[in-house]
Amino acid sequence: MKAARNVRQGTQRLFVHLVNSALMVIILIGIPAITSLRFGSIRLNSNPKLQMLTLGGLALASAGNLIGALFLTVDKKTRRACGAWALLFGIILAAEFLYVRGFIRFGWLKEFLLWIQETF
What we know:
By secondary structure, this protein is mainly alpha-helical. It has one domain (2-119). The protein contains four helices and two strands; from the N terminus they run αββααα. The protein has a two-stranded antiparallel ribbon. The longest helix has 33 residues, at 2-34. The protein is elongated. It starts with a helix and ends with a helix. The relative contact order is 0.11.
């Protein structure tokens, strides 16, 4: 009985990690890919739609993991995994929100990369 429960709990944790990894890829790679279109060297994109879908996806993923951690899981390790994913999605959501609102800028990174490109 105890061995079967441990296998089931391990499977639940694996499922949590796989689903959240897939969500992360979809939100951070898939959404920007579907909201932009390339014609040769010209790129057309919809920034408001990209921002809305990214922020909404991150918020839903974070809320879903939080609900899973608080109400749906019984195992302590699975609850901790859901909580960690909720925290990760929440941190990325906060960073994305601050970037969209203009509080975080990456001009220093652009200058640094241009300097590296010129130097090497």
